[in-house]
Amino acid sequence: MIGTGNAFQSKLHTEIDWEAYMQEVEGVVNGSYNYSTLEGGTGPLVYPAGFVYVFLAFYYVTSYGANIRLAQYIFAGLYMLNLGLVFKLYHATKKVPPFVLAAMCLVAYRIHSIFVLRLFNDPLAMILLYLAVNLFVSGRWTTGCAVFSLAVSVKMNILLFAPGLGILLLQSLGPVRTFVNIAMCAVIQVALGAPFLLVDPMAYMSRSFNLGRQFFFKWTVNWRFLAEETFLDRRFHAALLALHLLLLISFALFRWTRSQGGVAALFRTVYPLKKLSADHIITVLFASNLIGMACARSLHYQFYVWYYHTIPYLLWSTSLPTVIRLALLLGIEVAWNVYPSTNWSSALLHVCHAMLLAALWISKSPAPAAATPKQD
After folding, report:
1. Which of 230, 279, 232 lies closest to 256, judged by CA?
2. Which alpha helices (H) appear in 30-121, and where do they start and end?
């Protein structure tokens, strides 16, 4: 049973989802593998199987979820691991000044809270994502794709990076090996989900990969200035999806692959690039994710970790003056730290997203090809 009031309870813990996570995985401990019956205090289990396995480990390590202080210590260590993976990416290109990286650590109040006070699953997915990006940068595409798929299995938001990853795979490996790597990612998802798929495949797929999930208006960070009926309107959601696809297609055709003749040319490529530059890999993946964030139907406060550590890199990938870059960094930070969100904080966030995307569009894109030979 989950402990909530004993001596292990941390006074610094702010309960939001931890108890629900423990209740959800406790259902598996009790023998249920049907996603339609797995739920916690905040509602049904809506994350893929990787989440279940990770938080089952936490369940046992923390005395069935009771030793929250221990969980916080573990998450503090995971935060340091996350920073190490992020810094390794920044070091690969050396394009962002050190003072910006120091500021990124010092002002990350919301991020520290998401990791250590709230114990959300979002940071765990992002750690795996940054590990995958490091593997891509080192030329280890197959291993990186496997880790990427593991990240998706913890939380589905990682799929926002997938369009950019697809472009990079085509550029580096060609169409055949790209297909093989994507198939491997799918096999990993099936293998992880097998215990649940064998019991009720529809329940598992509809719960863990529900692209049409409805969000609560009271938690939105980015659409506070809308009327609630507009926020919930499926036509509004369709318009955002259309904008998302338009931006992805535009960047894919005219920014990420233009020097190679566009996306269609990549499918006809017999001899792909020997090695992609670290700058190109990181920029394409981070920009792909930013486009998804900018077009999201709703952003909740814990979602900030989805792109917090990518924003400085993207800003320094533009030709904007440093003062404007810092202003946009500050604007995004302010918007995410207004609680509850307001009309002006939501509008500020959209303005900052739009300015960053526009700056990426008009700035010179990094060269896809690296000068060094490809690593096996």
Report:
1. 279
2. 49-61, 68-93, 98-106, 109-112
